[in-house]
Design goal:
The complex is a heterodimer of chains A (159) and B (330). By secondary structure, chain A is an alpha+beta fold. In chain A, 32% of the residues lie in helices and 17% in strands. The termini of chain B are far apart. The chains are: A alpha+beta (159), B alpha+beta (330). At the A-B interface, strand 4 of A face helix 2 and helix 6 of B.
């Protein structure tokens, strides 16, 4: 087993760890840093539960080696949640009943945060496309799309 | 699922990567975006003790008017407006790959070199063990076409047919230098899901190059799959048409998702040059191509359905590509 030092930033904090080469970013976050908001779902890139932002871009942490985070910025669901209260996307999810069991929610929230940063007023089709890599096994997509559309004061369209 | 230990190498130049490959002969895999290789590693499929990551090799990056670096992320290409306008058929294929999350990591080179897929191969170790390992990993027989000589795993990349249709080329670097070849020559036309590539051990795909005429093509790509997201192609049809609809100079058709390699059908499309591409001609070509393809039962949809859909998809895709407004406006 080969290990080497890794320097990265997680939720704004510098992190230095010695990690084995085969360490997956998801395991670094959940097991080494105890940031368990990032979920392990399929572990094969199909479900999107493990989504984090890597330099701002939604990324599957289950298929990313921890080494790939060297010198880069990782943002997890813990990083977008303010010390008090909720991020506007999280609040909208609550208001629209867009979480059922909640397991997929961190992934959906991070994907949506990135979408709204780049496209503040997406239409329904753009939201559906943006979240098409995140699976909700409770199949609550309608509420999720409505929640994302409503974040910047938009009204759900195309009903 | 945890990855078994391996040693990761992170070269910064193609030459350094080739040198590493030479010293680790046979005991390594190249790692690009990881979205295909790492799931296979998690399922303990064909593990190697060394991975050579190409992430830090800067020569493999970048998109220009006539070149895409092999390590270009699919999402980067998708967001590149000029690229999409210049090569609409390829852009359609890029948008159809997997999901936005997979495209954020997945690369152009990785999609071209995607491991072939099969029901009996893309499974966990205990699953494969319980049935008896197959030719492609750990075993000596094929469960799809019962025999012991040949693997029928399906080539499931979306980009290769789209690139082959517009006559794009790949540049590869290897122990004995660099060479360029048409995209379709990357693959072994003898039709073996294991010996699927024409590359020699250690060779790296550096870039995709577009000849000047590639951007004059009207091109389209259509993909058959069960869900409109994530799924690999059960059939992927790419068409390109040069010249006026009444008298095309050239027509190209390439198909993936059906056999062990993406195939072009020049013998069927060459006679289409020089005379109006009528509905009747499109239908004739679609029927001829459908008679040639040989899907087997190793993906989600039954092979007979995929064959019948080949006719439908060839017809639709050629019709889309022949029209002057066609996919160029898309």
């Amino acid at each position: 087993m080969t290990s080497r030092p890794l320097r990265t930033r997680v939720n704004g904090t510098a992190v230095e760890r010695t990690v084995p080469d085969e360490r997956i970013l998801l395991d670094l976050l959940r097991e080494d840093l105890r940031l368990t908001g990032t979920k392990r779902g399929c572990d094969l890139g199909t479900c999107g539960c493990c989504t984090v932002l890597l330099d701002g871009r939604p990324t599957l942490s289950c298929l990313t080696l921890a080494r790939s985070a060297e010198g880069r910025e990782v943002t997890t669901i813990e990083g977008v949640t303010p010390a008090e209260g909720l991020h506007p996307v999280q609040r909208s999810f609550v208001e629209h009943g867009a979480t059922q069991c909640g397991f997929c929610t961190p992934g959906f929230v991070l994907t949506s945060v990135a979408l709204l940063r780049d496209h503040p007023h997406p239409d329904r089709e753009e939201v559906a496309r943006a979240i098409s890599g995140n699976l909700c096994r409770c199949t609550g997509y309608t509420k999720i799309i409505e929640a994302v559309l409503a974040v910047n004061g938009g009204k759900p369209r195309g009903d | 699922m945890h990855l078994d230990p391996f040693e990761l190498h992170e070269p910064t130049t193609v030459e350094e990567a080739l040198e590493l490959a030479g010293s680790l002969s046979g005991k390594f895999d190249y790692l690009a975006g990881g979205t295909d290789l790492l799931p296979n590693y998690k399922m303990h499929i064909n593990l190697r003790p060394h991975l050579i990551s190409l992430e830090r090799v800067s020569e493999l990056r970048g998109v220009s008017a006539d070149r895409i670096g092999a390590m270009t992320r699919l999402a980067e290409l998708e967001e590149h407006r000029e690229f999409g306008a210049a090569y609409p058929g390829v852009a359609e294929a890029v948008r159809e790959v997997a999901t936005p999350l997979v495209r954020a990591s997945g690369t152009v080179g990785g999609n071209l070199l995607l491991e072939t897929r099969c029901f009996f191969f893309n499974q966990t170790y205990p699953w494969r063990q319980s049935l008896g390992f197959c030719l492609k990993a750990d075993g000596d027989r094929c469960h799809v076409v019962p025999q012991k000589e040949r693997c029928y795993a399906t080539f499931s990349g979306d980009l290769a047919p789209a690139l082959a249709a517009v006559e794009a080329e790949v540049e590869v670097a290897g122990p004995s230098g660099r060479r360029r070849m048409p995209v379709e020559h990357l693959y072994n036309a003898a039709g073996d899901g294991i010996l699927r590539l024409s590359l020699v051990p250690g060779e790296i795909v550096v870039a995709v190059h577009f000849p000047a005429h590639a951007r004059r093509a009207r091109a389209a790509y259509s993909k058959l799959r069960v869900r409109p997201s994530f799924d690999f192609p059960e059939l992927g049809v790419a068409a390109a048409v040069w010249g006026a609809e009444e008298s095309p100079e050239k027509v190209r058709l390439a198909i993936g998702g059906l056999e062990t390699y993406p195939r072009r059908f020049d013998a069927d499309t060459d006679p289409l040059a020089g005379a109006a591409l009528t509905d009747a001609k499109v239908r004739t070509v679609a029927e001829a191509v459908t008679r040639r393809v040989r899907p087997v039962h190793n993906t989600f949809l039954p092979p007979d359905y995929r064959r019948r859909m080949t006719e439908v998809f060839v017809r639709r895709t050629l019709t889309r590509a022949r029209s002057p407004s066609g996919s160029r406006a898309a």
